[in-house]
Amino acid sequence: MTTDSIRARRHPLAILAVWAWQASLAWLASWPAASLVRAAYGNDPRGDGVLWAPGSHALLDFLWRDAHGVSAVARGAALVLVAGAFGGLVPMTALTVAIAGTRTPPGGGLSDRMAAGWCALPAMTFLLVVVTVAQAFALGAGVFAGELAEGWTHIRLGEAHAQELGVTLGLPFLALATAIGVTHDLARAAVVRHALGGMRALVLGATEFVAAPISLGWSWAWRAMASLVPVLVVGGAADRLGGRGGPALVLLALLHQGVALGRVALRASWLARAVRRVAGGG
């Protein structure tokens, strides 16, 4: 397979499969909350629409009266999301396998790709843990540097300018965390393309990023920015449609899932770019 043929658009079914996984995970995380609200407001003719009433009095009352239930639901949702972060490595790796066209027999189907994703799970887990820790340190150092600079210059520069200085000093650390994230994806692509272990893939990913930081950074950045546009648009639509039932609720659900699918497609597009890079396609 030539690097020019490594394109996400050639694998719509794989993209749909990842979207289905994420939609199922979101449903699993949100279902207890929906059940709790249904138990509290199931007899109200407005249903959960009362929670959208201006002033949020009903919402605050619900959070106060059902604090224990809300806390349990939040813990359950957090557990599902953490488990999903690791479990999601398999479908995301399977998507990358489909894009790369490696690690599966010619004409291999979904089961072969999932099996390949499962085989790559140890390396992918290693990368996830190492990169998450590295990004946490980078962001933590940025917050610490910003807070320290703001505290030292608060009296001399004034509150507003001290805050601006703190934010400015934190930006390089944010850029560092972003670079680590891009390197992570390049390493994931190396695991799939070259069947490398976690550490060797990380070294290769870092090498590729250092060789072309601007090109790779921009390739990641424009897709990340593009993925935010539908979120903002649908967020505005949600303000208008929120609290309604019937067709408005169906439309809102379709818009929400359309955004999720679009974000998965953009993610797949970036993964294809990462695979082309580690495959020597530039």
Any overview of this molecule?
The protein has 282 residues and is an all-alpha fold. The chain has a domain at 120-211. The chain contains ten helices and no strands. It has helices spanning 12-41, 57-65, 67-87, 89-100, 110-119, 121-157, 159-194, 198-211, 213-241, 247-278. Helix 4 (89-100) packs across helix 7 and helix 4 packs across helix 10. The longest helix is centred in the middle third of the chain and has 37 residues, at 121-157. The radius of gyration is 22 Å and the shape is globular. The two termini are 15 Å apart.
β-strand amount: under 5%
Task: Bin the helical content.
Answer: over 70%
The strand count comes to: 0
Outline type: globular
- Helix vs. strand class: mainly alpha
Q: CA-to-CA gap between the ends?
A: 15 Å
The secondary-structure element order is HHHHHHHHHH
Radius of gyration: 22 Å
Number of helices: 10
Main sheet makeup: none
Mean pLDDT: 81
Low-confidence stretches: none
Write the layout of secondary structure elements.
Layout: H1 12-41, H2 57-65, H3 67-87, H4 89-100, H5 110-119, H6 121-157, H7 159-194, H8 198-211, H9 213-241, H10 247-278
